[in-house]
Design a protein that fits this description.
By secondary structure, this protein is an alpha+beta fold. The protein is 19% helix and 28% strand. It has six helices and 16 strands. The strands form three sheets. Strands 1, 2, 3, 4, 5, 6 and 7 form a seven-stranded mixed beta sheet that branches. Strands 11, 12, 13, 14, 15 and 16 form a six-stranded mixed beta sheet that branches. The radius of gyration is 22 Å and the shape is globular. It starts with 32 loop residues before the first helix and ends in an 8-residue tail after the last helix.
């Protein structure tokens, strides 16, 4: 007979920032150092520079693209770091390489490295060797303006490079490790240990009770911003257990059924946001002030107004964040409903 059809996803991958990219990462080629060097030397090869966590972006006709540069660009000479091989791009019928490179050694004489300790960094850092349309910009600020593939490439580049910046020493013996395998591994020259980029799983949950959704806010967030509850998974936990534990810890709400909805790479610094939906079994909120500043139930019609920017109190999660995608699916009748 005819095999059963898989249901359409609640939220298509390509509508979530950093998800849905289709680049060939070419893991099969990473161990061939000579081949990677040839890719780097190809005139068609391109590299995405990152400066202190910010990718190089370019304004084009009112839009925003990644600031890919030729690999022989003079501004890259500020560093001797190993480039990270992101994968392959088709160049007139033949494969050419795409790379990322950390040039944090450059000192911007005009603008500082963004205001420290702020939730949003609107500083544009411009290199004197590049046109005015190019700038190092905060990816969290600009993610929703990028194409699906550009956002995926930026997420990958930032995630791997930030991991290298914070894992330069062997966790087994403490010696300085080196980048190998086209930037996708570190090896310790003293004890031989191998270290791989980390991705930390985080559950973020649409907790509903009838026509209401549970939202919270943290004190560091911009005024009025409310979002779904979220938290890191712990060793030995399933997704379902992590959802129930986090909601109980933060708002003391018991959760029954839990289902998976969608996921999102989140390179701030190195997480995978796992979107879930859960059915609240009660609604008496008692917050843990160490976790949240406040939490509340919001009716679906009210959340619809908030997402449209028409609510007097609630400023919803930013465009591009999976929290917003899940909420939009729910208020639009495409999200999970518990009866």
């Amino acid at each position: 007979g005819t095999p059963p059809q898989m249901p359409d996803p609640i939220i298509p991958e390509e509508t979530i920032a950093f998800a849905g990219g289709t680049r060939d990462r070419a893991d099969r080629m990473r161990a061939d150092a000579a081949l990677i060097r040839r890719f780097w030397s190809d005139p068609e090869a391109r590299v995405l520079p990152l400066w202190r966590g910010k990718p190089l972006l370019c304004e084009v006709d009112g839009g925003l693209t990644l600031g890919w540069l030729p690999t022989d660009s003079a501004m890259l000479e500020v560093t001797r770091d190993t480039p990270v091989f992101l994968g392959l791009e088709d160049a007139g019928g033949r494969p050419c390489g795409r790379f990322a490179l950390d040039i944090s050694a450059w000192e911007d004489p005009v603008a500082p490295d963004g205001p420290p300790g702020t939730f949003r960094d609107a500083t544009a850092n411009r290199h004197p060797d590049l046109p005015e349309s190019f700038a190092f910009l905060d990816l969290r600020q600009e993610m929703a303006r990028l194409s699906v593939q550009d956002a995926a490439d930026a997420s990958t580049a930032k995630g791997v490079i930030e991991w290298h910046r914070s894992h330069q020493f062997c966790s087994r013996c403490g010696a300085r490790s080196t980048m190998v395998h086209a930037g996708w591994r570190r090896e310790c020259p003293d004890c031989g240990a191998q270290h791989f980029p980390r991705t930390d799983p985080v559950v973020i949950m649409l907790i509903t009770r009838g026509s209401k959704v549970l939202v919270g806010r943290q004190s560091m967030w911009p005024k009025g911003m409310w979002s779904l509850l979220a938290g890191f998974m712990e060793p030995g936990e399933t997704l379902e257990a992590a959802v129930r534990r986090e909601v109980d810890e933060e708002a003391m709400i018991r959760v029954g059924r839990v289902i998976y909805v969608a996921s999102q790479p989140w390179p701030f610094p190195a997480s995978l946001m796992i979107g879930c939906a859960g059915e609240a079994l009660d609604e008496d909120i008692r917050i843990d002030e160490h976790e949240l500043e406040a939490a509340m139930w919001v009716e679906k019609d009210e959340m619809r107004e908030a997402l449209a920017g028409n609510h007097p109190v609630i400023a919803p999660a930013r465009h591009g964040a999976i929290a917003r995608s899940v909420l939009e699916a729910w208020v639009g009748g495409r999200g999970p409903e518990f009866r």
